[in-house]
Amino acid sequence: MPHYDLLIIGAGSGNSIIDERHDDWNIAIIEPGDFGGTCLNRGCVPSKMFIHTADRAYMAQQNAPFGIETKFINADWEKIRDRVFNRIDPITESGLNYRISLPNVTVYRSPGRFIDEKTILVDGDVITAEQIVVAAGARPSVPDIPGISEVPYLTSDEMMRADELPSHLVIIGGGFIAVEMAHIFSAFGSEVTIIHRGDRLLREMDSDISERITEIYANRMNLFLETEVSQIAHNESFEINLSSGDLIVCDQLLVATGRRPNTDSLDAAAGNIATSASGHIETDAYLQTSSKGVWAIGDITNPIQLKHLANADAKIVGHNLCAPDDLLPVDRSLSPSAVFGYPPIASVGLTEKQASEQGIPFVMAVRPFADTAYGWAMEDQKSFIKVLMDPSTRLLLGAHLIGPQSPSLIQQLIQGMSLGQTVDEMAKSQLYIHPALPEVIEQALLEF
Question: What does the pLDDT read at residue 126?
Answer without folding.
Answer: 97
